[in-house]
Amino acid sequence: MLSMDPGKKISFQRRICDGDLAIVYERHDSMKAVKVHEGSELQNRFGVFKHADWIGKSFGSKVFSNKGGFIYLLAPTPELWTLVLSHRTQILYIADISFVISYLEVIPGCLVLESGTGSGSLTTSLARAVAPTGHVHTFDFHEQRAASAREDFERTGLSSLITVEVRDIQGEGFPDDFRGLADSVFLDLPQPWLAIPSAGKMLKQDGILCSFSPCIEQVQRSCETLKASFTDIRTFEVLLRTYEVKEGRMEYGAGDESDSLGPLPCKRRQCSSDGSIGSESFSAPVIMARPCSETRGHTGYLTFARLKCLQ
């Protein structure tokens, strides 16, 4: 997420400035968040990169080291931040996050309550969704985790959209200051059913609640509690399967009409047993798609419910 400073518009074309946060892309499985300082430098296996060379460039730029190696400087979007943040707790990933924001109907100007904050993965995406006039109030019972999350939101320029508070929502409920004001509530708690009655009081009429739970037993007990004040109760499990699409080679031979794929590198001629040249076989390029070897499985169950309207 780019800085929410009114003087800096949210744009991927904005130039990198001294003090900005950038995502350094080394390769698809190696990225890190780096604070840009004019007198600093980054050292890795590709060489030494001076931060002074980064300032003034657009996000997405390719920069070179003293050895000729290169990296890319990417904008710290919520999607990339989710991949590089410190895991203080188990986090939500993009598939669940996008589903949550869609089903909670989060739009600019919304007031969203979240418990608990954890590593702040979902919180950053919620902040972008409610910007520029909405706000996210997130609560965590662990004081150090809350402090670390607050520091992260400062780094990513989201502190004007997010308020982090230390509070045991399961035991104390949400503060009465938000009674009837929240557009949506998100719960990521071990015992969400304890916080559901309080969450219902915070929501506006027709407001939506979402509870994230890794175990189906948690879902069952939460749904029993939701029936008292909520309707349209639904539970989902989001499973993501990614594919690798690349060019390969297909072998063709005389009279061969099979669809088998083969890694033959070049065209060649077949010789018969008596040494004469026979029919040709050759390979041709073809686009192949296959599931990636690393596929994320179960993360958790998402239970959504809408507050019943008063008759």
Automatic annotation (TrEMBL):
It holds the Pfam family GCD14. SUPFAM superfamilies: S-adenosyl-L-methionine-dependent methyltransferases (SSF53335). Its main location: nucleus. One of its GO terms (cellular component) is nucleus. It catalyses: adenosine(58) in tRNA + S-adenosyl-L-methionine = N(1)-methyladenosine(58) in tRNA + S-adenosyl-L-homocysteine + H(+). It comes from the Eukaryota. S-adenosyl-L-methionine binds at residues 119-122, 140, 168, 188. Its EC number is 2.1.1.220. The keyword Oxidoreductase does not apply. GO terms for biological process: tRNA methylation. This is tRNA (adenine(58)-N(1))-methyltransferase. It comes from Nelumbo nucifera.
